[in-house]
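Q: What would this chain look like folded?
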Amino acid sequence: MSGRIPTQFIDELLTRVDIVEIIDSRIPLKKAGREYKACCPFHDEKTPSFTVSHTKQFYHCFGCGAHGSAVGFLMEYEHLAFIDAIEELASSAGVTVPREARSEQAQQFAGLYDILKQAGHFYTSQLKQHQNTEQAVQYLNKRGVSEEVATKFGIGYAPPGWENLLLHFESKQIAQQALLDAGLLIKRDGGGHYDRFRNRIVFPIRDRRGRIIGFGGRALGDDTPKYLNSPETAVFHKGRELYGLFEAAKSVRDLQQIIIVEGYMDVVSLSQFGICNVVATLGTATTAEHVEKLFRVTPELVFCFDGDRAGRQAAWRGLETVLPLMRDGRQIKFMFLPEGEDPDTIVRFEGRQGFDKRLKDGLPFSNFFYKTLSNNIELTSPDGRSLLFERAKPLLLKLPESVFRHMMVDELAEICQMNAEKLSTLIFSTKVISKQEPTTSRKLVRVQQKGEPPSLVRRAIRLLLESPGLAKSVDVSQIKGLNLPGVLLLIELVELVKTHHQISCGAIIEHWRGTPHGKHLAKLAQLPLNLPDEGVEVEFLDSIQCLFRERQAQRLDELFQKSELGVLDAEDKRELRELNAALPR
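A: My prediction, written as structure tokens:
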């Protein structure tokens, strides 16, 4: 059979089968309290250490560490492939495995990709053949774009006129609604449609597979806006896509660095000078999705901005975006150009050698971070160093646990003339206190108590694995945005359980098969709780409430940080007043 097995079917199948019956039919199990035991089938042993939990629908061997769901057991014990194990389980449950045919959505996407590809051919042909191409050719020649580079990026031309593309596709009997869905047309107020791109140089925007997903257009006349992008469509999302990434990956086999610039022509011009590891955002600030996409193909990103106030503000927004994503092995640099210059003008004036020197002299992440935070602070005084600490703390809390985070703290300790270990304790070894515990500071004191679990998030996940039904009482909006390791996984877990009300611990872990999350959840599921049954819900709800208070405290720190930098807007001020009133002092 062709087609993928729907994930929902696998989740539901694991709620219908009983792992105890599946394993007992192959290995005799003995009841041992609430669980079942046997000698492990995966290693030699005389004393049983292989346990099977009916409640969790999960098996675990304390001897060799083997663990998993019913699917995992069949794969290991009978040496089955994943699909075959699902088929075996479905047979035992008396159900047929469904297969996904090509979905209606997939067919729609295929149609859009085809239309956009044809539009790309139309624009490139117009650049070569249209009678009014003189202005377009002059523009490209003035910018030094060679025919080779124009071909590499698929640069084209949308001629003047309201219906050139529309009439071209009508001759191919393609419906106007399909062209509208592809973002190529605009509806007229009085009915009908007209071309979105007119009298513009057109730049195809491609996804990682090289498919055209949208276009950018640069006006040749006085039309506004000067730069125009395709609208959001089913296949094009500006906050996820980057211009030039496909071409960069195709030109440079081993991308060790990617430069992020602001415009199409910056990417094209740098490529003209042999600098091919360049991408541009599509009229938006750099998003976390952009950064994660880039870090999947390179270990180092360089943000290239103008050196004016607006450029430095844009750079700081980029820094704030990457903070939660700065794991070990990832590097960020900031390259600032002289005011009024852009990568295109700089590389023309200074050549590749000059541009490469500026690139080499770019500011590392930590330099830009502390240089910006130290602005208008007198670091020779204790008061000034204390203010720097207060500015840096909420931002450092966003960094994931890593060697890089420790090094950032070490650098702050050196600047503040403090012991690094003591400073680290002041930043990270904290716990939200209850409203009954008074404090003399606007900051919430968070101190790790002796005997407490190392992480509230891990504890909440462990309790949820024990009793998935607890998810129904969680409002995930209360903890969204909380900068603690594992919060995103906790939110995903809650949302999964709310969608599949009867899902078991084993099925949850199976849901993340083959991912780091799956391994992490499996390890957590094996940890002892040391709680009576009636205490699981109480402790879980308390953990969620503590995380909610932690989110409020972090948000308060963020707003105070913005206040100190003078960038609070009216909504921020309202939120700051509400949080100040809600949180204990």
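The chain has 24 helices and 16 strands.
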